[in-house]
Amino acid sequence: MKITCFRTDLANAISNVSRAVSNKASIPALEGVLIKAYGSSINISGYNLEIGITTDIEATVLTEGEIVVSARLFLDIVRKLPEEIVEIETDERMVTYIRCGKADYQIVGISSVEYPDLPSFEQKDSITVNAKILRDMIRRTVYAVSEKTTKPIYTGSLFEIEDSVLRIIAVDGYRIAMRSENVDSDSKNNFIVPGKTQNEVLKLLVDDEQDVQIIIGQRHIAFNVNKYKVISRLIEGIFLDYRTAVPKESRTELVINTRSIIDSVERMSLLNNDRIQSPVKCKFADDEIRLSCTSTMGRANDMISADIIGESVEIGFNTRYLLDALKNTDTDEIKLVLNGSVSPMIVKPVKGDSFLSIVLPMRLSNEN
What we know:
The protein has seven helices and 26 strands. The N and C termini lie far apart (73 Å). The longest helix is centred in the C-terminal third of the chain and has 12 residues, at 258-269. A nine-stranded antiparallel β-sheet has the order 14-11-12-13-26-25-24-18-22. Strands 6-2-3-4-17-16-15-10 form an eight-stranded antiparallel β-sheet. The chain has three domains: 2-114, Roll (DNA Polymerase III, Chain A, domain 2), CATH 3.10.150.10; 125-243, DNA Polymerase III, subunit A, domain 2 (DNA Polymerase III, Chain A, domain 2, Roll); 246-359, DNA Polymerase III, subunit A, domain 2 (DNA Polymerase III, Chain A, domain 2, Roll), CATH 3.10.150.10. By secondary structure, it is an alpha+beta fold.
């Protein structure tokens, strides 16, 4: 193989693709990127047996061929090269020569035969979504994906397409995050996308004007984002029936400025850290919210005025979970809906149903 290409294009491609590369793998080739040079472009792929990322960049291909090189080392070298035009050549011993200006490297490669094939699958369905919409939907729900592998089904989000609406729902046992947007699609489908896959897609969604094609198979999914393709397995199993998990009754409701309540909860959270997770106590009564937090570090109190409709209620929350729900809204005002001190609280927009978050309460120490 012998090629020349632009250093910037190569560095960007390797940087993005290498996020799907294993740091420590039982198959040495999986710690590298696969480079294929054919026609007038080179294809660069990273794969960790769960997620694959692949892209093409323009190149002058003098001799066609394939090679696997260490992702970390190759990226470090390319980033430090002194000029824009890079020449890469391999020989029959899998030695890879990298030349740029007066810089010259020789690194050991691996035969592409040892690199596992990226999944190929039959397309069952597809939808197209604007990049900005998809980025906002993922970013505002993926925080609620479970990190615990004891229930693998919840390490991903449910994507549901029905009646020209795309919904993304994430659950981790302590909260639910849901986002809905209209899409131009007649499909009716649902599938569970791993949280890790969503985070990789999120990093590639940088151009608001671009559309993203989502290709759905029986057990795999592919996101075509700009010049990149992210391929992932889907999670199989039965996801929570989120519709029945949303509390139907309401005993207390209020509309409040989003920034005000975020600021107040953040002030309470100063008494917590990674080791200490004392709840923030919220008392909704007499058109005000009284917040307090007591921990081994001290005590804090605050108050926010609010028009409260319904019964008074005192309830406690994990400050991090509560802040996640509040910060991942995108409206100046939000509606809070409560049904007593031991039922989950709903965070939703004042009008419409574009998002919904549910936060489970923490039992307060003065409760029996």
